[in-house]
Amino acid sequence: MVWSFHGQVLRDGNEASCQAAVARVVTYCRQQDSEPPTADTGDYCKARAKLSQTALRDLTREFAGEVKDQAVPTWLFKDQYHAKFIDGFTFTMPDTEKNQKKFPHPRTQTRGAGLPIARAVAILSLATACVIDAVYGPYAGKETGESALLRTLLGSLSKGDIAVLDRYYCSFWMIALLLSQGTQVCARKHHLRHSDFRRGQRLGKYDHLIIWTIPQRPTWMDEATYAQIPATLLLREIRYNVVEPGRRTRSIDVITTLVDADAFTKEEIAQLYGFRWNSELDIRSIKDSLNLGHVRCKSPEMVEREFWTTFLAYNLIRITAAGAALLHDKQPRQISFVSTCCHLGCCCHAD
Fold first, then answer.
1. Mode of pairing for the β-strands spanning 131-138 and 117-125
2. Which of 32-36, 219-223, 330-334 has the lowest mean pLDDT?
3. How confident is the model at residue 351 (pLDDT cuts 50, 70, 90)?
4. Does the chain have fewer CB atoms within 10 Å around its N or its C terminus?
5. Is pLDDT of 146 > 50?
């Protein structure tokens, strides 16, 4: 059943229909000289609806963990650190009554126009490009932002990992929660925070140590957790320039918990944050090549199954690429995702 569901999420148009999925199963059974199932798509859909969402998620995470454990040092940051990218995205789904109830339109959208939309956050590995874990929920409403979603995933980040974050996650609370479990942070500074490199302990040009002071307790945090948060955080701030021919030079300010300037140079931290662009490419592959930009299922329960089946298929493709990289002494990200799909016979978009 998982195999046939994979065949749907990896295909487009009529090839993604339930009828086509059943036809592939029948063809396979005949090739194996086994009794084919009934061609009734109703039976197939009923069986597909019995797939365990929890099992699909566990399989996705388990496969990602296995290939992570087999990563060679050259795949890691500085040959020893597992860097994990955190990125958010949205996807739409069919405009059914059940989907509308679970994923209502945002207030800014005209009622009756557009499609139900969900917000998701994923953790991806720098070393293997696999999805370590993910979560999704309504696009609008209380505690539906990317930071709120990420807080539910903190347990998927391990001690010694380095979380590489975009500016929207760069807050006192997120850094404090990650540090409390031994996870280091490298994040672009939020645009509302002012930088003054004349203050703090100077480590070099546009490189200094700063102290952030704990703000008032947010409404989502209970008093017991708040009492365990340190009153101050010792952080490091760097600024570097991104120069691209024909484009305006951009200055990037990065906040990190990697405060040891001897162990982590300014250039290495800049390089680490620069790697974050890979997560944008990974999400694009998942949304465009594997069709997660718009899921096809018409109920929230089946949307969840399609969500995790897509990530499971993505990780299996990435594991194949990692095996090829290991065989040919390459980095997994040097192996083309689309080319891997083509060699595996997946009918995904080539763009």
1. antiparallel
2. 32-36
3. very low
4. C
5. yes
